[in-house]
Amino acid sequence: MNTPAYLYAWISLDTDRTPLVLGWGGGTWQGVQRPTTKAANLACDAAQALLSGITAGYRDGGGVFIGSTTGSLHDDLVFDESRVMDGGQYPSPNAFRRTLPSTIATEITMDLGLHGPVIVYAAGAASAAVACVRGIDYLRRGIVPMAIVGGFEIWTGGDHGAMAKAQVPEGTEAIIPRPTSAERCQIVLALIGSAEIPGHRRPLGQFAQANLGGSDIHLPGQTDRSLNLLVDLLVAGQGRMEVDGAVGIKVVLELQRR
Questions:
Q1: What is the mean pLDDT of residues 175-184?
Q2: Residues near 210 by beta carbon (within 8 Å), at least 6 away in sequence
Q3: What is the pTM of this model?
Q4: Nearest to 21 by CA among 227, 202, 220
């Protein structure tokens, strides 16, 4: 089975970038306060905007494929700090539950009613690109009818008290998300699916290539540079990106405009 993989919508958020870039084929941003971290709340808001108009029945089998090199590092440190406070008497169970790199991706699935696979990839400089390729592969094999793919990196520190006004591609809607405090988040998410998404808008493009290959480069500690390359590809609406993760893997992703 080789189902075509279409791009239906995308969104890019970077609280450290001016201007902020948001873009998609439709949808409405709705800020919802959830009992979670600011970064997770922002990711869930972005995912909700992507899936605007898609029925619960069709969401049911959808998957989430995310790339991240920072993962749950900040929450790991918060939990470790709680373990040594007051002689180790009061380790934080709330911080402990966030010490998995898949925590935010899982929150997205719960918030959106997705019950398909949830996978987080750490592939060095190509983490988000690898997540896109793997999500496309699941779609083409008929394992999922639709998926959210992309990546996010989250750091804490610095003063990011407000977000810049949205700048979007021509014909899309400008939106101003609420502030995200001192957490710096870079999030790139895309909705992919087959041509049979019920009641949804027309696809923006089709993925002509989504391949993983080997590489002889091994440089540990690389942060994800494929996030910015992915944004450039999505803004252009077509083109080809190639990125070496520097962890023995190389990614090629090609998008054709519909």
A1: 47
A2: 5, 132, 133, 136, 137, 252, 253, 254
A3: 0.82
A4: 227
